[in-house]
Automatic annotation (TrEMBL):
Domain of life, per lineage: Bacteria
Annotated coiled-coil segments of the chain: none
Gene Ontology CC annotation, any one: cytoplasm
InterPro entries: Glyco_trans_2-like, HAD-like_sf, HAD-SF_hydro_IIA, HAD-SF_hydro_IIIA, HAD_sf, Heptose_bisP_phosphatase, Histidinol-phos, Nucleotide-diphossugar_trans
Domain Glycosyltransferase 2-like: 9-127
Family stated for the protein in its record: Belongs to the GmhB family.
Region of interest (Disordered), ranges: 44-68
UniProt-recorded name of the protein: D,D-heptose 1,7-bisphosphate phosphatase
One of the GO biological process terms: carbohydrate metabolic process
Ranges annotated as biased composition (Basic and acidic residues): 44-54
Length: 499
């Protein structure tokens, strides 16, 4: 492998479309060096496991989201990877034969302030006729900025901003939002020289009505990035103001008719009809004008304005008071005794390790979302001569056996009088866990049952959450920003991005 590619992973989110096979065949047949791995993120709620492996591909891993949408799928992909660069490809594109080689060239020797490199997109349109309305819309991808059909990001840049905002439920605007947040950190995005082909997917007559749901996402973009977000994201306004005017005319016509004002109703209806006819003709005039296309344009041109307006208004309501996306933490550290397992003082017997209710399920939910997990535990029984290091480690092994693997396990064998820097509330174990996994402490959450756990998190620059038990003191509760009823509730907060 060449230097840039060996530090790169390719992430392909998919809902199992047949086009995935076309993409994988192209990647398998392409000459040249390979990246470190290919991560296929299966975003179907259910279904038989995907089998993307084939000769010629880099090492392949398949992970599943259970159906969380494209933003969540991409987040799971980059969190699963451990390379410096994450190259995203959509499952309906076809890379050129020299894509690997050009990716290597595009990423090699980029300055440290460059966080991402976008590939170039071509959308083939028919030569023998004008393109349909759907084909023209898809062709806009060729000139779009910062779309993740082919975009490579530094993993550190994704981690710094929390990755893709999962409040964008569709493959629309989530990539522009990410690009703006990355550039807000002072980083740059550049265009590379690699190419992909984005064929126009087959679509039914009503596809243009369904995509109007994206108007709600435009409201979220404005809430998050301000009124000039379109200029920064190179996103055209489109016809939404006209759609609002046409819809207002239709509502007015109905209102006047109901109020017994026929002339006003007729005037408003004429305005609606004129606006709808102008919209339909603008779409028909540019297209092939076949009978099917004209019928589709007439039907959907009447439906699109009210649908666009409805989704925009729904977005205004839904996204009131929205806060900046923080994303999931990169690491969640748990105290052991009293938090993950029932507290048995100075326990050295693995058979006395009993998980609290919901601990395994909470840990598995974090792992499933690509969040790494670890343990930070004071074990002063070693310093007191009550247990040995071997017994502590045997109990930690039993913990992993019962609750699943941990990415890091830290314990302090010292007593309160030893003056070490690792014993909580000192930050040593939290810092050591973050350093071991190359995680910024600001992207780490510590969950424990006493004030020392929260204080250690704060001292390390992490976020502390308290799950109180019978040993938790009132002053510890009062001093904690986060007090949750259970480990399950704490993980709910983490996975909702509220931490």
């Amino acid at each position: 492998m060449s230097p840039a590619l060996e530090r790169s992973s390719v992430v392909v989110p998919t809902i199992g479309r047949p086009s995935l096979d076309v993409l994988l065949d192209a990647l398998a047949a392409a000459p040249g060096p390979r990246p470190a791995e290919l991560i296929v993120v299966d975003d179907r709620p259910t279904g038989e496991p995907l089998r993307p492996e084939r000769p010629g591909l880099p090492p392949v891993r398949v992970v599943r989201t259970g159906g969380g949408g494209p933003a969540r799928a991409r987040n799971l992909g980059w969190r699963t990877a451990r390379t410096e660069w994450i190259a995203f490809l959509d499952d309906d594109v076809v890379p050129d034969a020299d894509w690997y080689q050009r990716l290597e060239h595009d990423l090699a020797d980029l300055p440290a302030d460059v966080a991402g490199s976008q590939g170039r997109v071509r959308v083939p349109l028919p030569d023998d006729r004008p393109p349909t309305d759907w084909e023209r819309g898809t062709a806009g991808l060729a000139t779009s900025s910062w779309i993740t059909a082919d975009l490579a990001y530094r993993r550190a840049a994704l981690a710094a901003v929390g990755g893709f905002d999962e409040r964008f439920p569709r493959a629309f605007r989530e990539d522009s939002d990410l690009a703006l947040r990355v550039m807000d950190t002072g980083a740059r995005l550049v265009r590379g020289e690699r190419w992909i082909t984005h064929p126009v997917r087959p679509a039914d007559r009503w596809i243009s009505t369904r995509v109007q749901a994206g108007n709600a996402d435009d409201v979220l973009m404005r809430r998050l990035h301000g009124p000039d977000w379109r200029d920064r994201a190179d996103a055209a306004l489109g016809r939404r103001p006209q759609h609002t005017a046409v819809t207002t005319a239709a509502v007015a016509a109905l209102g006047f008719a109901a109020a017994g004002r026929p002339r006003a109703a007729a005037l408003a209806a004429a305005c609606w009809l004129a606006g709808t006819a102008e919209f339909a003709w603008a779409r028909i005039a540019s297209g092939p004008r076949t009978r099917d296309e004209v019928t589709t344009m007439l039907l959907t041109s009447a439906a699109i304005p009210p649908l666009a307006t409805w989704h925009w208004l729904a977005g205004v309501v839904r996204h009131r008071g929205v806060r900046a996306w923080r994303g999931l933490p990169d690491l969640v550290l748990f105290d052991r005794d009293g938090t993950l397992v029932h507290d048995v003082p100075y326990n050295g017997d693995p058979q006395e390790v009993w998980p609290v209710d919901g601990a395994k399920e909470a840990l598995d939910r974090l792992r499933a979302r690509g969040v790494r997990v670890g343990v930070v535990s004071n074990q002063s029984g070693v310093a007191r001569g009550l247990i040995t290091r071997a017994q502590v480690e045997a109990c930690m092994d039993r913990l992993a056996e019962l609750l699943g693997p941990f990415d890091t396990v830290q314990y302090c064998p010292h007593g309160p009088e030893d003056g070490c820097t690792c014993r909580k509330p000192a930050p040593g174990m939290v810092k050591a866990a973050c350093a071991e996994l190359d995680v910024d402490p600001a992207r780490c959450v510590v969950i424990g049952d006493i004030g020392a756990d929260v204080e250690a998190a704060t001292a390390a620059g992490a976020v502390g959450m308290l799950v109180p038990t019978s040993v938790t003191r009132d002053e510890e509760l009062a001093a904690s920003d986060w007090v949750l009823a259970s480990v399950t509730e704490a993980v709910d907060v983490v996975l909702d991005g509220q931490w």
